[in-house]
Amino acid sequence: MSFRSSSLAVAIAVAFLTPAAAFADASTDLDQVVVTASRTDQTLNQVLAASTVIDRAEIERLQPRSLADLLRGTPGVSIANNGGPGKATSVFLRGTEADHVLVLVDGVKIGSATSGTAALQDIPVDQIERIEIVRGPYSSLYGSDALGGVIQIFTRHPEGGFVPHFSVGVGSYDTLRGSAGFAGRGTRGWYAVEASHDQTDGINACRGKPSPGGGGCFTYEPDKDGYRNNALSLKGGWRFDEQWDADASATRTEGRNHYDGTSSNFAESATQVVGGRVRYKPSQDMLFTANLGRSEDLSTDYENGVYADTFNTHRDVASMQADLGRVGGAAGLTTLGFDWQRDRVVGNTDYLVDARRNHALFAQWQQEFGASSVQGSLRRDENSQFGGKTTGSLQYGYALTKTLRVTGSYGTAFKAPTFNDLYYPDYGNPDLGPETSRNWELGVRGTPGWGNWSINAFQNKIDHLIVFDSGLSGPLFPFGGANNIDRSRIRGAELAADTTLGDWRLAGNATWLQPEDDSDDASHGNLLPRRARRTAHVDVDRSFGAFSAGASVFASGYRYDDTANAHRLGGYALTDLRMAYAFDAAWKVELSANNVFDRHYETARYFNQPGRNWMLTLCYQPRS
Q1: CA-CA distances (angstroms) from residue 221 to 66, 194, 209, 215, 599?
Q2: What is the pLDDT of residues 497-526, one digit of tens each?
Q3: Which of 372, 438, 464, 473 has the highest Cβ tally under 10 A?
């Protein structure tokens, strides 16, 4: 299906042109506390950055099949998937690269140090309590990888006393899903245990052709490529007294994935995250926090059952942070901190260097002056491979009225080269420097009685992009290699709104992007690959007592699969339907139907996507 401007116009009209006079109270709770945008507690109404929060209630209402399905409908996000459930999934935030998005799980940075991306396809939505997405440059608080933004995932935690829950579901492609857990909270301590299982026969991942003249996976294997995932998470915390408290968490996901490929077509993978935190609050104006964590990205590949290779990366992180002044108040807050990180690669690929360290000092100042709000941050990173890098950010907001605020910001960011960029045999370039960016943004947001709305416009210039350079020569580059040669300029605008109208809930957003290659070669002016220029998303839900129903429409414009813009991927629109019936206070049955019009589309050339599919789920979750 080709995507046309009229389709986008219809989606936007449904989301934003409903008569404002009929709107009731907004569905978004602006008093909820978020932490990702400043590394401190803020209400959503105080946050100056463009942010999206997805809570557990939203996840249960939308009934997403995967984390990628959940993220797909958020502003500024474009998804590329290599063949259906469990297959490699890339998330592009505001048109930046997939490895320009920092991903945290319970405060611990995750992702592969070789590829630079996180295995989001392996994180089960059943174990997610909340997601905070901050769009824009955040290297001044988080260092490398946060050039395009930050996605922080929080696993589930208890709401009150002991509460168990479980769910079991069946669906298309012989899908079987199940999850179970329990959580509790006492006078001083709390705990949560979650386990989940997901398996599917899947679809034929790739329709590629063998070389020469092939594409995609460069092979032809017309079979179903199944996927299996098991996950377990443990969390707990204890308050020793009014000044001291601590918590810890551990999460592990294990996947078994069939796919199509020339050198391997099956992988066993695992992502493991362990973290702990201690907080000391000697007074109302002082809070000291120490964090320690480790994340592991593990993958072993096979070709027709024969071992092929191993790529394991280990990341150790630690930080200390002092918040001085306002701690949950409204005056001002100064934050000082230190971050430390060590990355290691373990496998059978010969990297010239298999470990590196990074340490950083950062400072942040937040202040409110009447109707004005300011947030400024500065950070200095020192890396054992490429040396030092300084980044900064300044954000300003002004409340025109109690329900209308304008914001503006400028920030710089960087992305350190991955181990593959630096040292992969016959490709890596140890002389690479970091990619750098400069971002400007203007926004306006409103919280009138009928709901919430926001508009953000931005421009991001990225220099020293790391690309494959066929002109490199020498013993390290027999066929060319990685080099800092390209530039890009990304301009865009985001529009979002939500409201309730009686028993109806309406929400929608639209994104316009111009992600262009700004280099001085033949690719100048071309669109960056796999980013759609236009996307729109609309949610409509209605409750009828114990019964609820809803629909989502996602529309995406065309994109190109290559830097030369020779291979165009057509636009598409997907319609998902859902319903639920709570036949008891603790019991509920859910039914979802996705891609109900059976649209055929690709987000990466030659890689197939699921057609019409359904999922039936039985849920048990008593309220505390």
Answers
A1: 25, 36, 9, 13, 23
A2: 999 998 899 999 999 999 999 988 888 889
A3: 464
